[in-house]
Amino acid sequence: MIGEGLYTGYPCTLIRLSHCNLRCSYCDTEFQRAGDNGEYKCDESLDANLGFDWRPQVEMSPSEIVLNLETRMKQPWILLTGGEPLLWKDTPELVRLLLEGGWKVLVETNGTQDISVLPAGTRIAMDIKTPSSNEFGKHLEENIALLGHGDEIRFVCADSGDIDFALDFLKGRELSCAVSISPVYDSLEPKEILTRIMGKKIRLNIQVHRILEIA
Ligand code: SF4
Q1: CATH at residue 146
Q2: What is the pLDDT of residue 214?
Q3: Do 202 and 180 touch, CB atoms closer than 8 A?
Q4: In what order do the strands lie in the sheet with 123-127?
Q5: Full residue range of the structural domain in which residue 148 is found
Q6: What is the residue with the minimal CA distance to atom 8 of ligand 1?
Q7: How many structural domains are present in the chain?
């Protein structure tokens, strides 16, 4: 199930691609930071500081992934996440094949990679990293203008300073995509976000999959 954001609640098939170029303080998918032998667009020296040994479970080409999906239960939605899925050179091709196959595709990205490589019709959920993430300011500003109807900007906030940052960031911007703020689990009360976004075109984003304990 898509557990958060605009499309929350839709049953989906989740494709999680390994490796991430960021090290967010609240990351709950640390094992996705590792990688090996892959065709990374990023500098492979990023792997040098890993404090653990984890390798991608399966290496598959885009067409192998699509073939695999076609032989399984066919959920209408595909959630492509990571790690950072846009670090992989083949991701745009994979998304293209999935869209051609009739799936709706939502890509979650940390905002540091060029989203213009994704084909038309891709739904994009892009993070803007907040100060408490320790990865603040690393998004590509050019990406923001590429987000439109059906896409979303997400701020993950751990404290009221992060909420201040998100509201300041949005000031004066004309956005055609949706905007949401989510609390870091067990760090910030969702109600605090709610009180701060009253009267604004911002959604409170809750991780429903955590509440349901399904992923
Ligand atoms: S961008 Fe996502 S996967 Fe990468 S470190 Fe941050 S939270 Fe973890």
Answers
A1: 3.20.20.70
A2: 77
A3: yes
A4: 12-16, 77-81, 104-109, 123-127, 152-157, 178-183, 203-204
A5: 12-212
A6: 27
A7: 1
What is the CA(123)–ligand 1 centre distance, in A?
19
Q: Ligand 1 in contact with 158 (CB < 6 A)?
A: no
Ligand 1 atom index nearest CA of 23:
5
- Give residue 158 CA to ligand 1 midpoint distance, Å: 14
Residue 73 in domain: yes
Per cent of the chain over pLDDT 70 is 86
Average pLDDT, the chain: 87
Closest Cα to residue 5, out of 205, 214, 208? 205
Any domain includes 5:
no
**Side chain identity at 201, as an amino acid letter?**
K
Q: What is the pLDDT at residue 57?
A: 55
For range 150-171, the mean pLDDT: 97
CA–CA distance, 162 with 92 (Å, rounded to integer): 32
Q: Which residue from 17, 19, 110, 187 has its CB within 8 A of the most atoms of ligand 1, so it is best to mutate?
A: 110
37 pLDDT above the threshold of 50: no
User: For residue 215, what pLDDT is reported?
Assistant: 59
Q: Is 41's pLDDT higher than 60?
A: no
